[in-house]
Design a protein that fits this description.
Layout (H helix, E strand, L loop, with lengths): L8 H38 L13 E4 L19 E4 L3 H13 L7 H4 L3 H4 L20 H22 L12 H13 L2 E4 L6 H11 L4 E4 L1
Parallel strand pairs: 3-4
Antiparallel strand pairs: 1-2
GO molecular function, one term: GTP binding
Keywords: GTP-binding, Nucleotide-binding
InterPro entries: GNL1-like
């Protein structure tokens, strides 16, 4: 075998420089690919989803989306109960960022932090839990599903018609989630309601008033 020729200092520097360039190019390619996938995912989330329980006039962000090639062997959809929240626009996100940088928070008394629930949930307010429309066992599955879908779309329409998006907090837009709640309440004699410790009354009272005749245990 021919004897290896030793590298000069100049050749060694050139070799290390080429190696760094190749490594940098590989990292840039991976970063570009990652950004492309992230952007593509965001664009897909921003697209309007017309599945059951979603308002077709608003952008919906679908959380916990599971990879799926359609329905499973038993007709099971792994994304049936995924969370559906309205997606904030980029303009709204930037506006909030600017406001957070410009506004200086000042300490306030405990009395100022108190809020009368009647100021938020006024009688007849559209800010309520969606109710299951009347039904009976003579209805077909298609009739029942269609009636619930129509009622839920009316519920969403009233909320978005009365309030601008920036005035609303996150709430579930997936009808399948509410369908499960309706069915559980209908079958249950006692319901244990676990609420946010910051707003237990505002959450529990509305649901308790709506489901008259149910006994609620708060936790």
């Amino acid at each position: 075998m021919p004897r290896k020729k030793p590298f000069s200092v100049k050749q060694k520097k050139k070799q290390l420089q080429d190696k760094r360039e190749r490594k940098r190019g590989l990292q840039d390619g991976l970063r570009s690919s990652s950004n492309s996938r992230s952007g593509s995912r965001e664009r897909r989330e921003e697209q309007t989803d017309t599945s059951d329980g979603e308002c077709v006039t608003h952008h919906i962000r679908r959380l916990n989306q599971q990879p799926s090639q359609g329905l499973g062997p038993r007709g099971y959809d792994p994304n049936r109960y995924r969370l559906h929240f309205e997606r904030d626009s980029r303009e709204e996100v930037e506006r909030r960022k600017r406001a957070a940088r410009e506004q200086v928070l000042q300490p306030v008394s405990a009395e100022v932090l108190e809020l009368d629930i009647q100021e938020v949930y006024q009688p007849g307010s559209v800010l309520d839990f969606p109710r299951r429309p009347p039904w009976n066992y003579e209805m077909s599955k298609e009739q029942l599903m269609s009636q619930e879908e129509r009622s839920f779309q009316e519920y969403l329409g009233k909320i978005h018609g009365a309030y601008m998006s920036e005035k609303l907090s996150y709430f579930e837009h997936n009808l399948e989630t509410w369908r499960q709640l309706w069915r559980v309440l209908e079958m249950s004699d006692i319901v244990l309601l676990i609420t946010d410790v910051r707003h237990p009354v505002s959450i529990g009272m509305r649901l308790g008033k709506q489901e008259e005749g149910e006994r609620f245990l708060w936790g």
